Amino acid sequence: MITDGRLGHSDVPLDDGDDDFVDTPPRWKGTTFNANLPSREDQPSPNDVVDKMRKQFFKQLTKLQTENRRMSVAIDAMKSEISSLKHDQQIEISSLKHD
Fold it and tell me: Residue 10 and residue 4: Cα distance in Å, rounded?
């Protein structure tokens, strides 16, 4: 509904301009546009953002899996070395007992 040239704001009195005081701003605010805001065209779509994050996640996951395999191999090698040392130690102890 349009009344006295203002859409939906006819309840806000117009300034008659007959005083020397600074008028208070109206209770309603019109739509403002900020020219510095990027346009929607410059923004990546939500799907693009999700795809980018998914790729980063899988890249990090792959690095962690590779590091996990490397560390597992290193731990297995240490276990084998410890087992070999224990075996050698037992042989040494046995030979000392029998001498």
Answer: 7
Helix (H) / strand (E) containing 46: helix 46-98
Amino acid at 58: F
User: In this structure, which long-range contacts are made by residues 3-7, counting pairs with CB atoms below 8 Å and at least 24 apart in sequence?
Assistant: none
Q: Find the Cα–Cα–Cα–Cα dihedral 79, 83, 86, 90, rounded to 10°.
A: 170
Q: What is the pTM of this model?
A: 0.46
Question: How does pLDDT run along the chain (99 residues), one tens digit per residue?
Answer: 455 555 555 566 665 666 666 666 666 666 665 556 566 677 888 899 999 999 999 999 999 999 999 999 999 999 999 999 999 999 999 988 876
